[in-house]
Specification:
This protein is mostly helical and about 325 residues long. It is built from 14 helices and no strands.
């Protein structure tokens, strides 16, 4: 699990002695291997659903254990994804700085790290939460690795559509951790994340289209026109908003959640239509400014799930 040695200085008659990596460099490399920013996004959807499931503040120990082992679960999947994708990560500007792509972490080190985290998270859920949450967590890891990373990603433009199922699982895990059961409400939020994922990912992929093409990853923006990508993004955005509003009656939320979902949904759909209109007017490339939608979609999900968190607390005050 060695880090890359410092190269010899130009003009030196003898090569510089290999430098031993510090403990801090090892830690930073393995933290980066876990993709902490991706984990943050997953936790954004885990915490709120626990509040809904508990009808207020969830039991502290259950919440802490779920977040801890959920973080380990997501980190394990991300580390093994880096192990699998290290070859194509080297071809893309956005990912070539990842530890496995730069050989800061050996392939064996990345794989062992991911497997240890997978075992640890599963055992942790079993011992401190419940069997259902452990099964759902293990399913999410397996789906992300075997279905998305190994089967779909390099073979079909629908990779992020169906591969996104793994990213929806924290919603079910959070609910199961609190109730030891599943219900319609978490499945509605599962669908919110499911429909939100393709346009969020595709607008980012449009920005890095050349990278994906060089790595031979058939993302939709690589194999389809801007107009088709943005048309599908509009449709998925509408589906996201409709399902988010369905959560209102299914979960019995207050007017607060409904109002937030409606306002945020209007902004998301407006921006999606705006991108499509610009494409139909002949705007292409960087001038489309697809990253604006990408950042907006991040804010949309964070704020929507913040409303999911606040609503049961507000309901308790009103009640």
């Amino acid at each position: 699990m060695a880090l890359t040695n410092r190269p010899p200085q130009v003009g030196s008659s003898t090569p510089e002695a290999p430098r031993k990596a510090s403990l801090g460099e090892y830690v930073r490399a393995y933290v980066a291997l876990s993709k902490p920013r991706v984990i943050e996004l997953l936790l954004i959807t885990t915490i709120p659903v626990m509040f809904v499931a508990a009808g207020g503040v969830p039991p502290l120990w259950i919440a802490v254990a779920t977040l801890l082992f959920g973080t380990m679960s997501a980190a394990s999947a991300n580390a093994m994804n880096c192990y699998i994708d290290r070859d194509i990560d080297r071809e893309m500007r956005r990912t070539r700085q990842r530890p496995a792509a730069m050989d800061l972490v050996t392939p064996k080190g990345a794989l062992v790290y991911g497997l240890v985290l997978a075992v640890g998270s599963t055992v942790g859920f079993l011992a401190f939460v419940n069997v259902l949450s452990a099964v759902l967590s293990l399913f999410a890891i397996g789906f992300y690795i075997f279905v998305y990373s190994m089967l779909l990603k390099r073979r079909t433009a629908q990779n992020v559509v169906w591969g996104g199922i793994a990213g929806c699982m924290p919603v079910l895990i959070g609910w199961a951790a609190v109730t030891n059961s599943l219900d319609w409400a978490p499945f509605v939020l599962f669908l919110v994340v499911f429909f939100w994922t393709p346009p969020h990912t595709w607008t980012l992929a449009m920005r890095y289209r050349e990278d994906y093409a060089a790595a031979k990853v058939p993302m939709l923006p690589v194999v389809a026109s801007d107009r088709r990508v943005l048309l599908e993004s509009v449709l998925y955005s509408w589906a996201t908003v409709i399902v988010s509003l369905l959560f209102w009656p299914v979960a019995g939320t207050t007017w607060f959640y409904g109002a937030v979902a409606l306002i945020l949904g209007a902004l998301l759909v407006f921006q999606a239509h705006r991108l499509l209109s610009r494409s139909m007017a002949g705007v292409t490339g960087a001038k489309l400014k697809t990253m604006g939608f990408f950042h907006l979609s991040n804010a949309y999900l964070a704020l929507l799930f913040s409303a999911v968190t606040i609503d049961p607390l507000l309901a308790g005050v009103i009640g």
